[in-house]
Structures are given as structure tokens and as C-alpha cells.
Amino acid sequence: MIYKVQTLNNISVTGLKRLPREKYEIASEITHPDAILLRSYKMHEMTIPDTVKCIGRAGTGTNNIPVEQMTAKGIPVFNAPGANANAVKELVIAGMLMSIRHLGNAWQFAQSLEGDDAEITKQVEAGKKNFAGFELPQRTIGIIGLGAIGVRLANACLSLGMKVIGFDPTLTVHNALQLDARVEQALSVDDLVSKAHFISFHVPLNNGTKNMINEDRIALMPKDTVLLNFARQGIIDDEAVVKALDSGNLHGYVCDFPSNLLKNHPKCITLPHLGASTVEAEDNCAIMVADEIKGWLEHGQVKNSVNFPEINLPRGGGIRIVVVHENTPNMIGQVSTCLADTGFNIIDLLSKCRDQIGVTLVDVENGNEAEALAKIEEINGILSVNCLGCGS
Fold first, then answer.
1. Which pTM was predicted?
2. Which CATH number fits domain 313-392: 3.40.50.360, 3.30.70.260, 3.40.50.1970, 3.40.630.30?
3. Which pairs with CB-CB distance under 8 Å and at least 24 residues apart come from 64-68?
4. 85-270 has which CATH code?
5. 165 near 145, Cβ under 8 Å?
6. Helices marked H in 13-137
7. What is the rounded CA–CA span in Å between residue 105 and residue 125?
8. pLDDT score of 392
9. What's the CATH architecture for 1-81+276-308?
10. Which helix (H) or strand (E) holds 344?
11. What is the pLDDT of residues 219-246, one digit of tens each?
């Protein structure tokens, strides 16, 4: 079988090589795709073909994908958490240095110098006092969100001689094991912002994080605080930040999301969404998400999905039935009955659930494939059913 993959953005060739040509046809213009690969393309307005079985985002955030709509259709949405972690970590550190050493304004000053070299040297000596800054050691950074990026940033800042405070009520065991024991755990966001000279955000944008930093929380911060947002626009109330910068209640604001309000402010450094814009990050994201859609299309395996449970059943022979269903009682029993009624013998079975979605993998032999799939599709609560390795 040849799987068709549509790309909505340029995807790293290194990643696409994970999908061998003898099994995959990949193109930006393709009819009846089995999978869609994208980066920042906004899918909310597009008509998604009924043939699509999965979507892969070569990045972390999935706000540009109609995830709820895909979930209702039994379509997993994959992403690449942690693949760009080092790139974002390095950019945050660069942002801190640019802010505390006034590098943007100093560069503009140097570019504006006129005259012969002797005159330029004279102007440099007279003007450099306007760009005096401070250093990182012994300063405190507060990190909100201790996922792959937050953990790397925390450990790197410790190595730079900084003190680190973190806050993440959903910290996983895996990430906790990667986190240096010297990182202090804040009791709350309010606790963290009251103690930090730098605050960096590494959380998704949702109802709980929108305008997380507002006028009230800015009032809790030391006046020399620098805010760094390389996560998502909307986490910080930009108008409240500009007001605090103008009044001297904040030292600086560095973010990856320029706007008319921010881009020309003398205390703001705005970058053109560069967080994951490195060759290495783009390769890593593409490799990860290509492996994920391959795992789903060929084996029904789920890893790094934002809407499906993680599941992996080693192939035990025969053919594999992949059933996506609502998380309701007796679903597995009904699927098993359909398989038995159509002559199938079950070799192996695994079922996992996440919220309202369940995925059941069944390896079977010696039955009527078309009849079994038809019967399973008739079960109330079935979202999708596919047969991997079927002859039909």
C-alpha cells in the first residue's frame, strides 16, 4: 500500500526521508491524502479531506489545527514536544543578554555613528555610558512551565550562576527527573513573580494562561524585572506591560511576537517568531512527527498526540484492526463480538483511553475483513475503524 501525505508547509527533507518512497507519496498538492504534515499553516478555514487519518504538526503548539473537530472524527493530531527545546532555550538566554546589556539600542547607536574613525572612537567613548548593564550571576530567573524547554532553560541558567525558581503544577515525572535539584519550586505564579529578576514563560495558550501576566501581577514584581515570552502571544497582557515599562515598574520585555504596540518601544525587544528557527530544530521536529504519522498509519501506534492516548502494541502476526471510539462502557466487548461473529480469532488486544477518546488495537486472523469492519462501524460510539495489513 502507498500512503499519501500532503505537506501544507515546507518540511525538512531530513524528516521526510523517514517516510520511504516505496511506501509514501509526499507532495504539497495531492488528492485524497492519508496524512497531513504542516508547521504554521492555519487549518481552521480549510476543508479537510475525508480520507485523512492523521495530522502531524512539526512543532509544539497546535492552535492552528482544529483539534476538537479532528477528535470528533477519530483523527489523531501529533506534535513534536521537546524537538525545538534547545533552540528556544538558547534564544531565551540571548534575549536576557540583549536586554540587560542593551545590545539592540547599542547596535543602533553604533550604526548611527558618522565621521572618520577618530571621530567615531570619540563618540563611542562618550556614548557607551548610556548602555551600561548588569550581569547574570546571582540574579534570579523564574520559569513558568517546566516541560522540555523549561527544564533545559532552568539547568542552563544554573550553569550561568543564576538562581532558578520554577512553577508547574503539571510537572511530569520524566521532566522532574531531568530537572536540577537546585531549582526552587514556587508555591504559585504570584509567589514566583514576586521573587524573580527575569520571568520566562513556557506554557500553552489556553483559558488558564491567557493574560497570566496582567497589571495585578506586574505590581508584585521587582522594578528591575525583565519579562521573556517565547511561548505564545496572549499569555502576557502587552498593554499592561507597556504601561509598566513607561512608568519604570519593569526593566524590559523580550518577546517573539512583534506588534504595533511593542515593536518600536525603547524597552522592548521583539523578534520575528524565531523560537524554533534553527536547522537543527526544524530537522528534529520533522523527524519526530514523520515517525509519529508512520507509526499510526502502519501500526496504529500513538506517541506524542495532543488528543489521543499513547498506545503501542507490538505486532503479533495476522492483520491489525485499529478502532477509535468514545470512552464508553462495553465498547471492547462489542468490538470483540463483531470480530467473533465474522470468523476472526483474536491473537492480541490492547485498549487505552484518554478523556473521552479510546483507541483499541486488535490483531486477528482467519475472518471476513469487509464484513467485520462494516459491523464495527455500526456500533454506537465508533469514530473510525481501519484495517492494517488487510488484503482488501
1. 0.82
2. 3.30.70.260
3. 64/38, 64/40, 65/38, 67/306, 67/307
4. 3.40.50.720
5. no
6. 13-16, 67-72, 85-100, 103-112, 117-127
7. 16
8. 44
9. 3-Layer(aba) Sandwich (3.40)
10. none
11. 999 999 999 999 999 999 999 999 999 9
